Amino acid sequence: MSVMRREDDASMTPVEGEGRRVMLVALTPEARAALGAAQVEISRAVARVIMERRQSASRPNNDLYLLEPDEPLNVSREHFQIEHNGTHWVLVDRQSTCGTIVEGQVIGGNHAGGAAPLRDGDVIIVGTSSSRFVFKFRVA
Predict the structure, then answer these.
(1) Which end of the chain is more exposed for a tag (fewer CB within 10 A), N or C?
(2) What is the pTM of this model?
(3) What is the mean pLDDT of residues 45-55?
(4) CA distances in angstroms from 45 to 18, 21, 96, 108, 118, listed in the order given
(5) From CA 137, how far away is CA 115, in angstroms rounded?
């Protein structure tokens, strides 16, 4: 089951009840290309998004792929996921090399992993501060 849907796909119900939707919004052209839209909704049904680096367009395992063909590489093969733990949304760095930046705080890196709660409006940078993959977490 897919956990993400494009903004124009009306087949899923809203997330987190009371008509609130959870969105991942692209802030850079590379992020928009990865999403395939300006923003996507994250479904509570599975509540998991995994970013994975791919050098081709194959998509066998995860819901979202970041194509990063050039050096320097910021995105690990399985970089991070967004989960709903029953009460709130959490970004989990999956022991990536460069870490994930949430609102200026580095989560993980050097294969250490880590987690951070997500709040409406938080900016997520995949990898180092020079990464081209920048998103905003929104609850609407």
Answers:
(1) N
(2) 0.76
(3) 50
(4) 16, 13, 26, 26, 18
(5) 15
CATH code given to domain 4-139: 2.60.200.20
Query: How deeply is 69 buried, as exposed, middle or buried, from its count of CB atoms within 10 A (0-12, 13-18, 19+)?
Result: exposed
Q: How many residues does the chain have?
A: 140
* Euclidean distance between CA atoms 81 and 115, whole angstroms: 10
Q: What is the dihedral of CA 125, 114, 78, 102, to 10 degrees?
A: -10
How far is the CA of 13 from the CAs of 8, 21, 38, 128, 136, in angstroms?
Answer: 13, 9, 19, 34, 21
**pLDDT for res 56:** 54
pLDDT on residue 61: 60
